[in-house]
Amino acid sequence: LQESESENKLDGETASDSESKSEFGGSSPVPTSDDTPEVLNRALSNLSSRWKNWWVRGILTLAMITFFFIIIYLGPMVLMTIVMCVQIKCFHEIITIGYNVYHSYDLPWFRTLSWYFLLCVNYFFYGETVTDYFFTLVQREEPLRILSKYHRFISFALYLTGFCMFVLSLVKKHYRLQFYMFGWTHVTLLIVVTQSHLIIHNLFEGMIWFIVPISCVICNDIMAYMFGFFFGRTPLIKLSPKKTWEGFIGGFFSTVLFGLLLSYVMSGYRCFTCPVEFNNDTNSFTVDCEPSELFQLQEYNIPVVLQSVVGWKTVRMYPFQIHSIALSTFASLIGPFGGFFASGFKRAFKIKDFANTIPGHGGIMDRFDCQYLMATFVNVYIASFIRGPNPSKLIQQFLTLRPDQQLHIFNTLKAHLVDRGVLGSLEDA
C-alpha cells in the first residue's frame, strides 16, 4: 500500500484526483505505443533499449528535418497548408484523449460539437487573416466583400448555433461531465488554433520570422537531448524525470550559437527577409522588396573587456542577429516549459505520449508543444519591437473610402505637411 501511495505521489495524483475519477467513471490510462517500423526493429535488434531508442529518434528526426526543408522550398502557401494540417492533427490528438478517458458515458454530440467549434474558430481567425492580407482581392470580388463586411457577425452566429446545440445535448445526471468536456474543447481551441493562427501571422512578416524561431526550438530539443543523453546526471524537473540540468544548459548555449549562425545566413536572402505579400496582378504570393535596416550589415563596437579576448575592436553583423539572441534565449529557457506543461498533462491521464504517430517521438502534439508557446512570443515580440505602420495597407483602406472622405483626408494630410514644412520643400525640389 505504501509503495502504491508513493507511486501515486510521483505521478502527481492526490486524493481529490482519485475522488474525481470515481465520480466520472474511473478513467483508465489511454494506451499508446510506438509503432517502430519493422525494418528498424530488425536492424537495431542487437542494441540495448536505450541505444535503440536513440537511433530511432535520430533517424526519424533527420527525416522530419528533411521534410521541413522541403516544405520551406515549396513556398508560403504550402507552409500555411502544413500549419493547418498540424493544427487539425494536434486538436484531434487532444480531443481523442478526452474521449477515451470519458467514453463510458457515451456523451451525445461530443465529438461532433468539438469539430464544429474547431470549424467556427478557424473560420473566424482565417477570415480575419484573409481580410487583412488580401484586402484588394476581397474588395474586388462581390461575394468576398459581403463575407468580409459581415464576417464577425457570421462567425458569432455560427458559434451561437454550436452553443445552442450544446445546451440541447445536455443529459440528466451527466451535466457536470458535459461541462467539463465543453471546457476541454474550448481550452484546446485556445491552445491549438490561436497559436497556429499566430504562426501564420509571423510567416507573413517574412519567412525568417517563421523559420528561425521554429529552428531554434528544434535545435534546443535536439541538443538538450544529446547533452542529456551523454552527460546528463542532475534531474531538472519532476514532471520530466529524463530532463537534466546538463541537457538544459547545453541546449541553451547551442541554441544561441545556432540562432546567430542561421540568422546570419538567412539575412542575406530577400526570399527569407521580405514580407510575404499577395500580388493582385498575378494572383500569387511575392517575397521581393528592398531589405529593411534589420537585414543590412552594420558595424558594432565590441566591449573593451572582450576586445583583448577576441582580438577585434568591431564586428559586422545584421541587426536581426541581435533579435535572434532574444528568440533563441526564449526557445531555450522558456520554450521547454511548454514541454513540461504537456508532460504534466500526460501524467495527469497516465499516458506516455499524445499519440503514436511518429515512432520514437509520440504524436504530433508531442513535437509541437514548445512551438505553440514560441509562436505567441514571436508574435508579441514583433508587435512590440519590430512592426510599424504599414503604408500599403493604409493606402488600400484609403482607396475603399467614398470620394468625399478621400478628399477630406487628402486636405487634412496636405495641411499637416505644409505646417511641418515638408510639402513646401518637396515642391521646391
Automatic annotation (TrEMBL):
Catalyzed reactions: a 1,2-diacyl-sn-glycero-3-phosphate + CTP + H(+) = a CDP-1,2-diacyl-sn-glycerol + diphosphate; 1,2-di-(9Z-octadecenoyl)-sn-glycero-3-phosphate + CTP + H(+) = 1,2-di-(9Z-octadecenoyl)-sn-glycero-3-cytidine-5'-diphosphate + diphosphate; 1-octadecanoyl-2-(9Z-octadecenoyl)-sn-glycero-3-phosphate + CTP + H(+) = 1-octadecanoyl-2-(9Z-octadecenoyl)-sn-glycero-3-cytidine-5'-diphosphate + diphosphate; 1,2-di-(9Z,12Z-octadecadienoyl)-sn-glycero-3-phosphate + CTP + H(+) = 1,2-di-(9Z,12Z-octadecadienoyl)-sn-glycero-3-cytidine-5'-diphosphate + diphosphate
Ranges for region Disordered: 1-37
EC number: 2.7.7.41
Top EC class for this record: transferase
Protein name (Swiss-Prot/TrEMBL): Phosphatidate cytidylyltransferase
Classification via InterPro entries: PC_trans, PC_Trfase_euk
Family according to the record: Belongs to the CDS family.
PROSITE patterns named among the record's database cross-references: CDS
Gene Ontology terms, MF aspect: phosphatidate cytidylyltransferase activity
Membrane topology field: Multi-pass membrane protein
Bias kind Basic and acidic residues: ranges: 1-22
Annotated keywords: Lipid biosynthesis, Lipid metabolism, Membrane, Nucleotidyltransferase, Phospholipid biosynthesis, Phospholipid metabolism, Transferase, Transmembrane, Transmembrane helix
GO cellular component: endoplasmic reticulum membrane
Transmembrane feature ranges: 109-126, 153-171, 178-200, 206-232, 244-266, 320-342
Subcellular location: Membrane
Gene Ontology biological-process annotations: CDP-diacylglycerol biosynthetic process
Pathway: Lipid metabolism; Phospholipid metabolism; CDP-diacylglycerol biosynthesis; CDP-diacylglycerol from sn-glycerol 3-phosphate: step 3/3
